[in-house]
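Weekend entry, working from home. Most of the wet-lab plans are on hold until the incubator is repaired, so I used the time to fold the two sequences that have been sitting in the queue since the last round of cloning. Logging both here for the record. First:
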Amino acid sequence: MDKSYEVPALRRTNDILDLLATAAKPVRAATLAERTGLSRSTLYLLLDTLTRLQWIDKRDDGYMIGVGLFELGNAYKRHDQLQAAFRKGAGEFIAKHNEVVQLAVLDGVHVVYVAREDPHRPVRLVSDLGSRLPAHCCALGKALLAGLSDDAVIERLPERLEAVTPHTVTRRAALLRELAVIRTSGLAIEREEVAAGIACFAAYVGMTPAGKRVAVSASVPVGRLDAKREKLICIGVVQLAGQLRGAL
């Protein structure tokens, strides 16, 4: 976005909310002032307004995201026709494979997780709803980037990519080669590029009426995988993507 057309108060509010959204505990006003560069008078005026709107809550000597913002965020899910189809399809996938299923959209150079259904056994993931990851390092992101042309990917990503783990692909040229394979196979595969011990399998679903690119994935601990099981999960993910594509 061209910042010359931004409303300053909204940008400052967004800066505050971004900081609170990534914090594990309430953030003190002094920390918010330091991180945002806002004057204390402007900051306290915004914090007071956001608190009265219930977008944030005052806890102890700090602030955190409030229930009002949660309610607004859930409006996205109510307007997204994919949610019901995802829950049904993910439930069937879990009944068969007992592994977690996730739905994400592409937002610039990141994926944002918008839905998740958990299996009946625990798995350690970094895909909480609303969280985001660099698209180049996860199977969901690769499935989504494969839906773009190479030129569009080059416009979005630098030649050197962020390493999330030692297994992350960090060369754009190498990523482009992967995307070419994904366009042919219809399946993206990532092993321990986001989290140690976790493999992920993803397939592109399509574009929503709102213009968001969507993909679906299953994440599996590598210790639970053998060649046969991996093949079955890959088939299941591609089939689920096909079901959801029909819902679009």
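Second, folded right after the first finished:
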Amino acid sequence: MFGLVVRFTCKDDASADAFDQLVSETIEGIRQHEPGTLVYASHRVDGQPLQRIFYELYADRAAFDAHEEQEHTRRFLAARDDLLSSVEVDWLELHTGKGTTP
């Protein structure tokens, strides 16, 4: 499996609302067209109204690469920068756990 955690900080409340809408549209495309995307979850952070955290888990690196090539993902990547003040990415290597298996 292949995964990552991403912390997004939106510029302001209006940007956060627009980001949430963009994410909802993107996740719909992921649900419909990405069988190799096992988990793609967007979280709000309690007490931090401008922050969002994504948890993404893919069957393998090829599934992630396929995700990056999708039209809905390219649209998200192109539109998000105007809404954000920062992006932090942590790439994950599974050590142990319980949950979705490929």
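Plan for Monday: verify the second prediction. The domain at 2-92 is CATH 3.30.70.100 (Alpha-Beta Plaits).
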